[in-house]
Design brief:
The structure is a single chain. The chain is an alpha/beta fold. The protein folds into three domains: about 5-165, Rossmann fold, CATH 3.40.50.300; about 175-355, P-loop containing nucleotide triphosphate hydrolases (Rossmann fold); about 360-440, GMP Synthetase, Chain A, domain 3, CATH 3.30.300. The chain contains eleven helices and 18 strands. It has helices at about 15-25, 70-85, 100-110, 155-165, 195-205, 245-260, 280-290, 310-320, 345-355, 360-375, 410-425, and strands spanning about 5-10, 45-50, 50-55, 85-90, 115-120, 145, 180-185, 205-210, 220-225, 230-235, 265-270, 295-300, 330, 380, 385, 385-395, 400-405, 435-440. Strands 8-9-10-7-11-12-13 form a seven-stranded mixed β-sheet, sandwiched between helices. A six-stranded mixed β-sheet has the order 2-3-1-4-5-6, with helices on both faces. Helix 2 runs parallel beside helix 6 (about 245-260) and helix 10 (about 360-375) packs across helix 11 (about 410-425). It is globular and about 75 Å long. The chain starts with a strand and ends in a 7-residue tail after the last strand. About 40% of the residues are buried.
Length: about 450
């Protein structure tokens, strides 16, 4: 289930950023300083009642203006509306309802998206001021919600209504596509993402259906052939963050990251002519940190002058740059000529199956016992690490919990050693695996 996207929109100076900061300030969960992951200022992930939400902050909307900056902000907000699953329309009780609020309300109603109307700066507890009731005239389905973005009052009521518009965790809003392998094709602009999808579709010519692009991605296309059933997700190219100045471009990056989140497998496209760049590393890191199995595709291989060592040398460069995901298979192909494109299906299928693989606890602990016997657990100042047992608690990615006497003694290097033992024994080719260390007595499900 994808994380619902919630856009906060409204006129300038109604408190959108204050609300955004209040809702995300203590519950931000985007990882910083990890391979490939950067933090955008326009959106943050938060959590409410056990559900994750991705909040988008926007510039104020001025429906009628000749000011270039205000037009720019309006365009940004309109793109956020298109991207969002639910919209929070923020107004200001101190100013009262203005004609601009009516125009924005009309814009939001035409979008067809669920809208939650919030009236900000209601700082008094109890009965809202008389000006609050003016906002009923905007005609939204739900009652306006009085809040104080500054103090946080009413924010829980607001998020409760937002969640009511989000699909249930146990729901299935993808219907017949549920059994398909969802494949996100990601990479820099012009790396060949659309070309590879077009080649896959054009070669097989067994398209089941064209699924209208969701609000998050350009196009999802369902495909069935002798290799299996797939949903191919084409995404906007991801540029370096320093080059992402246009808000429309920023949202294309957001959409690409959301595509990775809802994918089962990621195909990372790299331009062989350009070689492996720092931005390629960042993009691969997005898939890795999301725990997604991946295939690394070196595209435009037909344009490279080759000798007997070219593939070996390039592969070494790939794994040197992507040191955090040496589990991923590398394939050399040409989206233009179709060279080796058909082999991509097998790698996608294998990575998907490996990410769903389960190992029984008994077999896992046989491997763990052998690993600790071959390499003794570390110690520090006379205190020795004791490793008790290991069990698998999840898939996609395969997730394991190891119980021991001291989390602090379980050094990163020993965790990596155990991971390598798991890979040597069970494979897990193409997928990251997650290892959680717990002291005995802690809840293994957390």
């Amino acid at each position: 289930m994808s994380t619902p996207v919630v856009a906060i929109v409204g006129r300038p100076n109604v408190g959108k950023s204050t609300l955004f900061n209040k809702l995300t300030g203590k519950r931000i969960s985007i990882v910083e300083d990890t391979p490939g992951v950067t933090r955008d200022r326009i959106y943050h992930e938060t959590e409410w009642r056990g559900r994750k939400l991705l909040l988008i902050d926007t510039g104020g909307i001025e429906p009628r203006t000749d000011n270039a900056m205000l037009k720019y902000m309006r365009r940004q907000a309109e793109t956020a509306i298109e991207t969002a699953d639910v919209i929070v329309f923020l107004t200001d009780v101190n100013v009262g309802m203005l004609d601009e609020d009516r125009q924005i309300a009309s814009l939001l109603m035409r979008s067809g998206k669920p809208v939650v109307l919030a009236v900000n700066k209601v700082d008094r507890v109890g009965m809202p001021p008389a000006e609050f009731y003016e906002f009923y005239q905007l005609g939204f389905k739900d009652d306006p919600i009085p809040i104080s973005a500054l103090h946080g009052t009413g924010s829980g009521d607001l998020l409760d209504v937002v969640l009511a518009y989000c699909p249930d965790d146990d729901g299935n809003d993808e219907g017949e596509l549920d059994e398909n392998i969802k494949v996100a094709v990601i990479g820099k602009p012009n790396a060949g993402k659309s070309s590879i999808i077009n080649k896959l579709l054009g070669t097989e010519r067994l398209i089941v259906s064209d699924v209208a692009g969701t609000t998050r991605d350009a196009i999802d296309t369902a495909l069935e052939n002798e290799h299996g059933k797939y949903v191919l997700i084409d995404t906007a190219g991801i540029r370096r963050q320093s080059k992402v100045d246009d808000p429309i471009e920023k949202y294309s990056v957001l959409r690409a990251k959301l595509a990775v989140e809802r994918a089962d497998v990621c195909v990372i496209m790299i331009d062989a002519n350009e070689g492996i760049t720092e931005q390629d590393e960042r993009i691969a890191g997005i898939a890795h940190e999301a725990g997604k199995p991946s295939v690394i595709c070196i595209n435009k291989w037909d344009l490279i002058e080759k000798d007997n060592n070219t593939v070996k040398e390039f592969t070494e460069k790939v794994y040197q740059a992507f040191s955090y995901m040496t589990y991923a298979e590398v394939i050399y192909l040409s989206a233009k000529t179709g060279q080796r494109v058909d082999k991509l299906y097998g790698l996608i299928n294998d990575a998907y199956e490996q990410s769903r693989r389960r190992i029984t606890t008994g077999i896992l602990n046989d491997v763990l016992s052998d690993a600790t016997a071959r390499v003794q657990p570390p110690s520090d100042k006379g205190k020795y690490l004791k490793v008790y047992y290991m069990t698998q608690i999840g898939v996609q990615p395969p997730t394991f919990v190891i119980f021991c006497n001291s989390v602090e003694l379980f050094h990163f290097s020993y965790r990596r050693y155990i991971e390598n033992c798991l890979r040597d024994t069970f494979g897990f080719k193409g997928t990251p695996i997650k290892i959680i260390i717990r002291e005995r007595g802690e809840d293994s499900g957390k």
